């Protein structure tokens, strides 16, 4: 009889060891299956046209991805996403701006973009020439429309609002410099010099009734030549 009790204990010990090995092995089998289903679930809930593109500041400086309803800047500029101008960000379907162009995401704080002037081969004729003083100029912007206009000196200021019929003075802008302007109602803008003298340039922001290549970007080069793109 004692010998049989010892055999039973040994048998039960073998069963316990086998069960422990089986339980320990279960996570290794289950874990890959869970990992395989995670990515398809995330893909199924992706929104190709997230709401962030219709909220500020991205509503006025970021193009929506192809196939999405246009936001303010997309309606304003009216061109396809293969010709993105300076100062404008191209959006991605995952809800973030293209970091290769803008360098920012919606989760980060907004910072001005450093725009580069177009190459001389594609740049049009200058619309005016202002004589800089110590490498800088003053620029007065006059809003002759009835719409609010968002303007920004790239690399120098945050986006600011200029209401219809109002004007503002931008002082001591180091050259070269780029100024962007966008109507909040989605209309087109006509940027034209109304007066200029040594160290001073006045730009009229008027209504443009026909679409052209002007995209609301004013550039003043180091020699004082003024271009609109």
Notable characteristics:
3 domains, 229 residues, 2 helices, alpha+beta, 6-stranded antiparallel β-sheet, Mutm (Fpg) Protein, Chain: A, domain 2, elongated, 21% helix, 4-stranded mixed β-sheet
Task: Describe what this molecule looks like in 3D.
With 229 residues, the protein is α+β, with helices and mostly antiparallel strands. The chain folds into 3 domains: 1-44; 46-111, no CATH class; 128-228, Mutm (Fpg) Protein, Chain: A, domain 2, CATH 2.60.270. Helices cover 21% and strands 27% of the residues. It has 2 helices and 12 strands; from the N terminus they run H-E-H-E-E-E-E-E-E-E-E-E-E-E. The chain has a 6-stranded antiparallel sheet with strand order 3-12-11-8-5-6, with no helix packed on it. Strand 9 (189-197) and strand 10 form a beta hairpin. It is elongated and about 55 Å long. The N and C termini lie far apart (103 Å). The model is unreliable at 32-44 and 99-122 (pLDDT under 50).
């Amino acid at each position: 009889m004692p010998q049989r009790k010892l055999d039973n204990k040994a048998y039960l010990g073998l069963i316990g060891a086998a069960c422990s090995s089986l339980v320990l092995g279960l996570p290794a089998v289950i874990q890959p299956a869970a990992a395989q289903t995670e990515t398809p679930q995330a893909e199924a809930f992706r929104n190709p046209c997230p709401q962030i593109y219709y909220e500020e500041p991205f509503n006025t400086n970021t193009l929506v991805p192809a196939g999405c309803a246009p936001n303010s800047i997309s309606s304003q500029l009216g061109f396809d996403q293969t010709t993105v101008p300076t100062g404008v960000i191209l959006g991605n379907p995952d809800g973030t701006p293209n970091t290769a162009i803008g360098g920012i995401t919606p989760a980060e704080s907004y910072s001005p973009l450093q725009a580069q002037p177009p190459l001389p081969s594609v740049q049009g004729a200058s619309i005016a020439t202002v004589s800089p003083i110590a490498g800088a100029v003053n620029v007065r912007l006059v809003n002759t429309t009835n719409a609010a206009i968002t303007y920004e000196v790239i690399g120098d200021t945050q986006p600011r609002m200029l209401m219809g019929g109002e004007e503002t003075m931008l002082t001591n802008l180091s050259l070269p410099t780029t100024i962007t302007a966008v109507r909040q109602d989605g209309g087109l803008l006509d940027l034209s010099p109304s007066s200029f003298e040594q160290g001073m340039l006045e730009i009229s922001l008027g209504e443009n009734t026909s679409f052209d290549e002007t995209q609301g970007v004013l550039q003043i080069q180091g020699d004082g030549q003024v271009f609109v793109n």
